Amino acid sequence: MVYASFTVEIEDGIAHLRFSRPEKANSMNADYWRELPEAVNDISDNAKARVIVLSAEGKHFSAGMDVSVFMEGGLDADGASREIKAEAFHHKVKMLQGSFSALENARQPVLAAIQGGAIGAAVDLVTACDCRYASEDAFFCVQETAIGMTADVGTFPRLMKVMAEGWARQICYTAERLPAAKARELGLVNEVFSTHEALLEGVMAIARQIAAHSPLAVAGAKRMANYARDHSTADALDYVAVWNAAMLSGEDIKKSYMAKMEKRAPDYDELKPLKKGL
Question: How many CB atoms are located within 10 Å of the residue 181 CB?
Answer without folding.
Answer: 14
